[in-house]
């Protein structure tokens, strides 16, 4: 697979950030990932290389090892990573956002110092464990995992589903019910260390067309002990923490969708310029041009929404409504992009020589991640109809406004 150069203009500071991503993937990640895939082994050295290059620390203050570049930089990095290798986009959630950023926002100073620097450096691997089998878009109502306090520890029992990196994770944010009778008010968040003791098991879920090294798993907890000092926030505060985490996670997922869509467009354009039929490139045919135009227009609109979302987050303002808009439209743009790219490539869309089938698998997965299109449509419509003000319903993190103002 060749790494095509980026084509979208950016202001110089953000262009420099993107160039760092492009160079790293062209020189190290893409040349080496094949050997890890052949062995079906998690590429820890490559994740560490991303951390060392600063790809995970843009939203974090310098005192924990970040660069304090803000969410606009996060969006640019997540897009470029996913434009080249959408499977590595998982890292932008689990190493740069939903796991470490949730600890930064809601953790104690001791928890932040202990866990965050290693995660954003790529030295430790993170996970975010909220979803359960049958839960879908109702994680609170369907949650069956329990946490029972016994002295200076909690005993966790239950299971989680679709938890990426959980078979490799060193650190994770996991949610369980400390009061099963209290609904969403009975949910508590925990920082878990899967390798710290017995009672934790992660089983990869086989998925066609997706990465053989970055697995989503079923997680089983059987009297798994978590020390009280690893509780994140207060008992019963877990639902607030989870919703806040997903709001920030939608930024990276939406940016990853834009990146995957841009990757489809870049490869389709390159192919349409090279492939000839009837003595001229197929890109000269108006039907192909129509497919390209639709892709380009929707990607540009989705990117604009993602960048606006990042700017609002950088300003420390509530962003729940905009996060849903960005995630929803980026999903649409990505689906259009992979469908149109498939039309342009024809049978070659299935060939390993081209990455279109890889993009398709990850776009389908990302369409569901951090809330499906239908969930986003409900949130957007209820806000537009005045049934629910999404911005007032947004749950700001306790430390985020301080961080954004520094």
TrEMBL record:
<feature type="domain" description="Acyl-CoA oxidase/dehydrogenase middle">
    <location>
        <begin position="128"/>
        <end position="205"/>
    </location>
</feature>
<feature type="domain" description="Acyl-CoA dehydrogenase/oxidase C-terminal">
    <location>
        <begin position="236"/>
        <end position="383"/>
    </location>
</feature>
<dbReference type="InterPro" id="IPR006091">
    <property type="entry name" value="Acyl-CoA_Oxase/DH_mid-dom"/>
</dbReference>
<dbReference type="Pfam" id="PF00441">
    <property type="entry name" value="Acyl-CoA_dh_1"/>
</dbReference>
<dbReference type="GO" id="GO:0050660">
    <property type="term" value="F:flavin adenine dinucleotide binding"/>
</dbReference>
<protein>
    <submittedName>
        <fullName>Acyl-CoA dehydrogenase family protein</fullName>
    </submittedName>
</protein>
<dbReference type="InterPro" id="IPR013786">
    <property type="entry name" value="AcylCoA_DH/ox_N"/>
</dbReference>
<dbReference type="Pfam" id="PF02770">
    <property type="entry name" value="Acyl-CoA_dh_M"/>
</dbReference>
<dbReference type="Pfam" id="PF02771">
    <property type="entry name" value="Acyl-CoA_dh_N"/>
</dbReference>
<keyword id="KW-0285">Flavoprotein</keyword>
<dbReference type="GO" id="GO:0003995">
    <property type="term" value="F:acyl-CoA dehydrogenase activity"/>
</dbReference>
<dbReference type="InterPro" id="IPR009075">
    <property type="entry name" value="AcylCo_DH/oxidase_C"/>
</dbReference>
<dbReference type="InterPro" id="IPR006089">
    <property type="entry name" value="Acyl-CoA_DH_CS"/>
</dbReference>
<feature type="domain" description="Acyl-CoA dehydrogenase/oxidase N-terminal">
    <location>
        <begin position="16"/>
        <end position="123"/>
    </location>
</feature>
């Amino acid at each position: 697979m060749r790494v095509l150069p980026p084509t979208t203009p950016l202001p110089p500071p953000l262009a420099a950030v993107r160039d760092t991503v492009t160079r790293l993937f062209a020189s190290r990640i893409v040349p080496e990932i094949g050997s890890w895939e052949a062995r079906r082994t998690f590429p820890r050295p490559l994740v560490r290389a991303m951390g060392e290059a600063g790809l995970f620390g843009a939203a974090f203050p310098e005192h924990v090892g970040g660069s304090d570049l803000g969410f606009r930089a996060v969006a640019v990095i997540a897009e470029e990573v996913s434009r080249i290798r959408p499977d590595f986009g998982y890292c932008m959630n689990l190493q740069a956002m939903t796991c470490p950023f949730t600890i930064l926002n809601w953790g104690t100073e001791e928890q932040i110092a202990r866990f965050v620097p290693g995660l954003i450096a790529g030295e430790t691997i993170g996970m975010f464990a909220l979803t359960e089998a049958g839960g879908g878009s109702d994680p609170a109502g369907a949650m069956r995992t329990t946490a029972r306090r016994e002295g200076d520890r909690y005993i966790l029992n239950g299971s989680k589903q679709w938890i990426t990196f959980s078979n490799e994770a060193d650190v994770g944010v996991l949610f369980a019910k400390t009061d099963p009778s209290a609904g969403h008010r009975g949910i508590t968040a925990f920082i878990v260390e899967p390798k710290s003791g017995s009672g934790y098991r992660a089983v990869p879920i086989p998925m066609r067309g997706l990465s053989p090294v970055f697995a989503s798993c079923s997680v089983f907890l059987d009297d798994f002990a978590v020390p009280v000092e690893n509780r994140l926030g207060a008992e019963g505060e877990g639902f607030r923490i989870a919703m806040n985490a997903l709001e920030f996670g939608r930024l990276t997922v939406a940016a990853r969708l834009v990146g995957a869509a841009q990757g489809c467009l870049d490869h389709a354009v390159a192919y349409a310029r090279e492939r000839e039929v009837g003595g001229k490139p197929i890109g000269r045919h108006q039907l192909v041009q129509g497919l390209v135009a639709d892709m380009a227009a929707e990607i540009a609109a989705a990117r604009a929404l993602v960048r606006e979302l990042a700017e609002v987050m950088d300003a420390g303002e509530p962003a729940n409504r905009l996060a849903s808009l960005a995630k929803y439209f980026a999903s649409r743009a990505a689906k259009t992009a992979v469908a149109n790219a498939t039309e342009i490539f024809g049978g070659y869309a299935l060939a390993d020589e081209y990455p279109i089938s890889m993009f398709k698998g990850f776009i389908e997965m990302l369409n569901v991640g951090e809330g499906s299109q239908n969930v986003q449509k409900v949130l957007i419509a209820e806000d537009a109809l005045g049934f629910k003000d999404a911005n007032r319903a947004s749950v700001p993190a306790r430390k985020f406004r301080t961080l954004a103002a520094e």
